[in-house]
Amino acid sequence: MCPKTSKTTPLLLIAGICFVIVLVVVTGITLINNINLSNIIRLNEKVASDSVSNNENQIKELNYVNNHPRNIYLKLNATKDEGEEGEHEMQREQEQEPLELPKISAVIGETTPKILENQLKNSQEIPSVSVTRAPFVPTSPTLLDSPPLPVGGVKTNGSSGGLIDYEKRNQVVKMMEHAWHNYKLYAWGKNELRPLSQRPHSGSIFGSYDLGATIVDGLDTLYIMGLEKEYREGRDWIERKFSLDNISAELSVFETNIRFVGGMLTLYAFTGDPLYKERAQHIADKLLPAFQTPTGIPYALVNTKTGVAKNYGWASGGSSILSEFGTLHLEFAYLSDITGNPLYRERVQTIRQVLKEIEKPKGLYPNFLNPKTGKWGQLHMSLGALGDSYYEYLLKAWLQSGQTDEEAREMFDEAMLAILDKMVRTSPGGLTYVSDLKFDRLEHKMDHLACFSGGLFALGAATRQNDYTDKYMEVGKGITNTCHESYIRAPTQLGPEAFRFSDAVEARALRSQEKYYILRPETFESYFVLWRLTHDQKYRDWGWEAVLALEKHCRTAHGYCGLRNVYQQEPQKDDVQQSFFLAETLKYLYLLFSDDSVLPLDEWVFNTEAHPLPIKGANAYYRQAPVTLPASNAS
Ligand code: DMJ
């Protein structure tokens, strides 16, 4: 027995091991498949359950169609126009431009509209598409008890302003649907989407928590585009899931303000839905501890649970950053007005006073300021990264106030004149650009971020007639043209993160870390503003070139990605669909092909994340509340 047993034992052992290996492999494969599958199923179920909403609430709280700005305009006009004629006008308008909810668009080549398909074949050629006259929509709702319109609103010239380019605008709507549906499928409730890997992206700017950044940032774009079903899903998620209570996230005060507070405020202005006002205040309250500094200049980061705030280690000896603490004014001022609590406005007014009184080297604002000492850090100045939206908010605070905040306009003009003198230059090839300034040395480089300033200069020119008006407009057009050049000098027709000017190159990135494009909106923002102000067809043509380039290079089967190098014919994609692609890029492109009555510039002012806020005294959506709460020193 013994010898027999000893012979068969190794065979049995080998057979046993083989069996176990096969079992492990088969189980593993099954598990992986199940995990992938169950992830998708779970996400779908989550989306579905998050979206289930009680019908009664929907009707009571959303009243989407009735509250849509376009329909309020129509209603107000119908009442104003008396009797049957007004009603017929309203009916005709609705017939001409139905609130169509197109189906999710598929990958290029499957359901791409003919117009786009043809043009993708030859993206240099901009075809002349017949442009239909837009239905008449009054641009100013009845102002009820509001004061009269301030003198000197945004003026437009030209005669083609009332036109919608339906085909191109519809294409932008389809892009929005593609971006949204894929976010919904693979990253619902998370911050952003990774389209290539079909999973969520957790960008560090949102901390490590699931704050639904794409939902909050993109929701007003859905609303403006009339994508009602998607809008409702987002609104329901905010109601059910969005809260900063009981989490210990370290949030960027700036990013949280422009995307989350800004997004909620716009939604409140559009709908009057108290949910958004409550959430905007909830978020802003979590940011308040960051303002507890000796100067009142806030820190960059704040912990939502402990209230502990701090600055970035890399920012010039513990400094706060100009573009961050200087880009809170619009949201905080408006929040005070709709809540009746002056505290928020007081906080940003303190920042304003510090910046007004401090000595400015050569009239310029350095990018870094120490919140403890109130002294400037490194003397680096920029209209791009670290500086940009501070200048934007000076002009826009004045506009938002109905042009009564004269201090803001003065500070804007002083700053822009210094920038014109010390930082704006013309290249040998005749391109206007804004350099960075480091101590006394010009760095002949312009960030993509600074491309918003084309629109900013033009908006400054259009809203006040003074000695600088012509210069502002000339520079605004020049910068916008230069940014367009930075796009068309790249084979992808999309612009790099930064571009340089030297004897050898113009409007071109030189360093590898400057060659990427992350779906940024700034150039299109300037096309939109310049289009509204001049009605020069070239801005729409440039915008359409961009749509074609985005479709060709950035679109994937599961959303939109940035590119690692715009100078390659077939660039690698970065696998991130930024929330600002939905909030800004697609919104500005949509508005570029809309007529002027959609968010007219003398009634709405866009925050730096493209969330439109109403202008006081000029816009019935301002929804000012009576002052009820005393300001408090505590935060
Ligand atoms: C956005 O978050 C805002 O436009 C901000 O002002 C700058 N950066 C991004 C878009 O590029």
Would you mind describing this structure in some detail?
The protein starts with a helix and ends in a 21-residue tail after the last strand. It has a single domain, classed as Glycosyltransferase (Alpha/alpha barrel). The strands form 9 sheets. It has a 3-stranded antiparallel sheet with strand order 5-6-7. Strands 10-13-14 form a 3-stranded antiparallel sheet, with no helix packed on it. It has a 3-stranded antiparallel sheet with strand order 15-16-17, with helices on one face. The protein is built from 21 helices and 21 strands. Helices cover 49% and strands 9% of the residues. The chain is mainly α and 635 residues long. The radius of gyration is 26 Å and the shape is globular. The N terminus is likely disordered. A hairpin with a 5-residue loop joins strand 11 and strand 12. The protein binds 1-deoxymannojirimycin. The site of 1-deoxymannojirimycin (DMJ) has 8 residues, from helix 21.
Poorly predicted spans? 1-6, 26-160
Strand % is 5-15%
Bound molecules: 1-deoxymannojirimycin
Under the CATH scheme, which class? Mainly Alpha
Strand order of the largest sheet: 5-6-7
Disulfide bonds: 451-483
Main location: membrane
Function: Involved in the maturation of Asn-linked oligosaccharides. Progressively trim alpha-1,2-linked mannose residues from Man(9)GlcNAc(2) to produce Man(5)GlcNAc(2).
Protein name: alpha-1,2-Mannosidase
